[in-house]
């Protein structure tokens, strides 16, 4: 009798099962809005076909003696109607033990994923394949010109690789210094509601602004975020901790990897606002400088090695899982949870086959907020439209408003949508 396939959790994934809670679920979300109402029956068929092509998604979480691990999940994942509660804690027991959900609403297909199985890049590949399969089942003729990981393509060993371990080099210099950062505070929504504001931005308009200011889109949005926190929460107040925005970096751009599992790390953009008035342009200048200093392969490799070295520590390895869970939780809440003010993730441009583009209206990427990081932002671009998504677990909207006001002031063309409750 054939045995189930199993996987060790990749280096980045190991922390999430220990720290995930209803107030910090570590869920992210990707959605595609099509031109026609979604057919639930065909979406279910598409999901059952797609999941077989992505074995690292077809898993359930198991407890071993020393670490969690993934075991092949032979259950069927079912599509569901989309809930108004986004990026909420995912209980596998209510989901046939899967660590992701696929839902639909009107013309939208949504994928929500527990971060242990993949990062934004891997999640986007799964959603692209799912929507492609759905459109094919609807009878559309779409030629896959290499942008889709489809069922006809053989699964590669590299797609299942833990690229952190593969690129580990014990001789690389490491730096693990982490200091406390400023924390955004506010009135939390009840029942784990997440407020969501989407700014639909003409890609050409934000590119023009960034060209004039001599920065990238990611640098510009990061600076807008830093400036908004400064203006609304720090300016004219007593001494405060530095504001630190974590920005995920896709390591596949720095190291040869085709993995569909996690393979990203954060760079940190720090700003110490304990000085006289500082302008937006000065904040942007400092942000550009930080990105230039941090986006260096040697520095990024050092962080990769640092993370893997912790996992390979002899005392960590022999510690039973029950004790390891406690140690990870304590370490996370004492160090990591206080190390960043918020996160901003830009997945970049979505690439689809030319014959598939006319069927897709928009793509949205959301990283959930949490008790420790009550406001996070994310961005994704498709077909000359960039969607800036601001998620929040608190009712106050002043930071969100200041981000968008700065963009409009600079000449960025945008339209706003929201799921915000009346507060």
Number of helices: 11
Query: CATH homologous superfamily of the largest domain?
Result: Nonribosomal peptide synthetase, condensation domain
Number of strand segments: 15
Measured by DSSP, the beta-strand proportion falls in: 15-25%
Helix content: 25-40%
CATH class of the largest domain: Alpha Beta
SSE-based structural type: alpha+beta
CATH architecture identity of the largest domain: 2-Layer Sandwich
Mean pLDDT: 94
The name CATH uses for the topology of the largest domain is Chloramphenicol Acetyltransferase
User: Which stretches are low in confidence, meaning pLDDT under 50 for 5 or more residues running?
Assistant: none
Q: Could you please describe the fold and organization of this structure?
A:
With 423 residues, the protein is α+β, with helices and mostly antiparallel strands. The chain has 2 domains: 6-154, Chloramphenicol acetyltransferase-like domain (Chloramphenicol Acetyltransferase, 2-Layer Sandwich); 190-418, Chloramphenicol Acetyltransferase (2-Layer Sandwich). The protein is 32% helix and 23% strand. The chain contains 11 helices and 15 strands. The strands form 3 sheets. A 7-stranded mixed beta sheet has the order 10-9-11-13-14-8-15. Strands 5-6-7-2-12 form a 5-stranded mixed beta sheet, with helices on one face. The protein has a 3-stranded antiparallel beta sheet with strand order 1-4-3, with no helix packed on it. Helix 2 (40-53) crosses helix 3 and helix 6 (217-234) packs across helix 11 (398-410). The mean pLDDT is 94.
């Amino acid at each position: 009798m054939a045995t189930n396939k199993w996987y060790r959790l990749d280096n980045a994934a190991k922390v999430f099962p220990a720290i995930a809670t209803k107030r910090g679920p570590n869920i992210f979300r990707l959605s595609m809005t099509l031109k026609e109402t979604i057919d639930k029956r065909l979406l279910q068929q598409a999901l059952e076909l797609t999941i077989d092509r992505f074995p690292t998604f077809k898993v359930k979480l198991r407890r071993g003696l020393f670490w969690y691990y993934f075991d092949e999940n032979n259950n069927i994942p079912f599509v569901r109607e989309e809930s108004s509660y986004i990026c909420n804690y995912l209980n596998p027991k209510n989901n046939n033990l899967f660590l992701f959900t696929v839902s639909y609403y009107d013309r939208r297909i949504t994928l929500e994923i527990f971060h242990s199985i993949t990062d934004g890049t891997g999640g986007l590949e799964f959603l692209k394949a799912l929507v492609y399969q759905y459109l094919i089942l609807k009878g559309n003729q779409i030629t896959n010109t290499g942008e889709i990981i489809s069922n006809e393509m053989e699964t590669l060993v590299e797609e299942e690789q833990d690229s952190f371990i593969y690129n580990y080099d014990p001789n690389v210099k490491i730096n693990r210094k982490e200091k406390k950062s400023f924390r955004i505070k506010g009135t939390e929504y009840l029942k784990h509601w997440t407020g969501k504001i989407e700014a639909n931005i003409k890609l050409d308009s934000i590119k023009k602004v960034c060209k004039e200011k001599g920065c990238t889109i990611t640098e510009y949005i990061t600076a807008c975020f830093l400036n908004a926190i400064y203006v609304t929460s720090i300016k004219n107040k007593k001494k405060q901790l530095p504001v630190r925005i974590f920005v995920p970096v896709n390591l596949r751009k720095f190291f040869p990897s085709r993995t569909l599992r996690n393979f990203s790390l954060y760079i940190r953009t720090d700003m110490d606002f304990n000085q006289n008035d500082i302008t937006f342009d000065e904040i942007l200048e400092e942000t550009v400088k930080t990105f230039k200093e941090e986006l260096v392969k040697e520095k990024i490799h050092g962080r990769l090695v640092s993370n893997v070295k912790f996992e390979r520590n002899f005392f960590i390895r022999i510690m039973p899982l029950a004790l390891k869970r406690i140690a990870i939780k304590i370490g996370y809440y004492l160090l990591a949870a206080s190390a960043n003010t918020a996160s901003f993730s830009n997945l970049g441009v979505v690439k689809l086959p030319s014959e598939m583009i006319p069927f897709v209206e928009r793509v949205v990427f959301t990283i959930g907020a949490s008790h420790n990081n009550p406001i996070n932002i994310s961005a994704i671009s498709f077909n000359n439209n960039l969607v800036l998504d601001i998620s929040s677990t608190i009712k106050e909207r002043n930071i969100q408003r200041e981000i968008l006001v700065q963009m409009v002031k600079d000449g960025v063309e945008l339209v706003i949508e929201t799921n915000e409750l009346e507060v």
